[in-house]
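Posting for a labmate who doesn't have an account.
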Amino acid sequence: MIYTVIDTFYLTDEQLKNSPSRKDDIDEATETNLRIYGCDLIQESGILLRLPQAVMATGQVLFHRFCCKKSFARFNVKRVAASCVWLASKLEESSRKARQVLIVFHRMECRRENLPIVHLDPFSKKYAELKTDLSRTERHILKEMGFICHVEHPHKFISNYLATLKTPPELTQEAWNLANDSLRTTLCVQFKSEVVACGVVYAAARRFQVALAENEPWWEVFDAEKSAIDEVCRVLAHLYSLPKRLTC
């Protein structure tokens, strides 16, 4: 059983290894690539829709949560990504119309697949089908979440952690970037946002060769364990070892 309350949705390693997609014979590498691809679509579409970063972050977390419940063999990654953006824009009070979301995803698909960019007619049969599917998929997401869509991001903790540790100012942007990249992984369904924040702060310090007081377990003050921080760093390192651009 997946433990779900107002601010938690966390899985064990065993649960991740036995995800619905894996049970449908989708191997780990393919599932990872599909997750990254879906998150890339959410991030890119959010930029094109001129949405705040918080919307894209929430959309990616919702995407990962849904993919822990349903298989990629049964739900199209592009349609799930579009519905996550649409739902997240409402949750973060930056709502966009279904028409805007569908047109952006249509143009993205044309560009990514090197197809001629043809206008998506809002009065066409294709548009009506896409809009129906967008709404239907959103209802599936809400149902699987039990209508509990609260999301807490690591970004809100980073500045406070860095100030407490008295680190150089240049670490802030690096840690923020790492937090954004962490959303392309399953870290958001493995650890609390406070733990991920500790992990990206630690990784940023390592990149800039800034010494943190490891003889004094500073992470314990922020309710984290060293093993969890190491896992955050490991997952991020694996992400950066993968191809930069994925297509599906």
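Reply:
Got it, the structure tokens are right above this. DSSP finds eleven helices and two strands in the chain.
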